[in-house]
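Hello Y.,

Per our agreement to keep a running log of every chain we model this quarter, I'm adding this entry. I've kept the format consistent with earlier entries: sequence first, then predicted structure.
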Amino acid sequence: MKVGILGGGQLGRMLLQAAANYVVETFVLENDENTPAAHLCHHFVKGDIQDFETVYNFGKRVDALTIEIEAVNVDALEKLEAEGVKIYPKPAAIRTIKNKVTQKEFYKERHIPSPEFIVTKNMHELKQHVSFLPAVHKIGMGGYDGKGVQVLRGEKDLDKAFDAPSVLEKMVDIKKEIAIIVAMNSKGETAIYPPAEMVFDKALNLLDYQLSPAEMADKALWKAEALAIRVVKELNSPGLFAVELFVDRKDDVFVNETAPRVHNSGHHTIEANYSSQYDMLWRIILGYPLGCPDAILPASIVNLIGAEGFTGEAVYEGLDEVLKMDNVFVHLYGKKQTKPGRKMGHVTIISKERSDLTYKAHKIKNLLKVKC
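Predicted structure for the entry above:
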């Protein structure tokens, strides 16, 4: 089977690493021949994943396509789907999710609990809703990895907002932020991973580290799992989805947003779960039975982010010390150039003891720096 991946970043890289376990011919489309996934596929095609003709011509070469980023040309995917190419997830699901405005409206129309919101088309409209603050302003298109999100606590913060179609989302009194990965195959069968608790770097608005399984009250866990499955069922598409949720102080649960692909919050599944999120997606694409998503051991991951003040050829300070640690697994993405805030790798820790996970996560965060 010939399978194409739109996008060649670290998610594509790890997806290709899992592909080595199966008989599949892999193709990657990406604009940069030095992208992390480029050397792991059978066929690399340099091109723009947002260009209609490029995506369409690439898709005609394969039996199935998947994505590692939402910023793809959905019109081309719809044409390919009509011509018989299998797309995971379906183009309709990608179109709904890739714009935060349509994504939020999707939740509202289907009565899926999500924070209250207002759509603002420009800065002028936003200024008419000062009474709605404090809120989070999320640009409709183009936001990624913490970019395109601004916290507006009051009128003084309006200069940070977006003069473009966006979602103004009421702030939730958050107790925990979690992510649940749900797999659904072409038969509508589902597999659900244990929730991961996400801890964010407030300055960069990027995932700093996470713990899985998340410690939650049973009531909140049941709500979160039911909501995550409902989102995927409503999207009505085979594929792998990461549903991010807020748990508030009352243990009520709200859908924050959904990613229609493998996700940062599932990196730990490579070592910590019987079937990783990457293995699971290949099973779906290739028509094999769903894998077991259960945890083998609790896990934590630490993102390796380019340090402030360093732009240039990457050097990993403290790498030897981290590699000496027990039950610690280093994943470097192969990006030659570092810059502040750039995702350069991650480290997974597995342990029976939660205190060991948090201790090592903080130690690694302080030890391992990406500089130049």
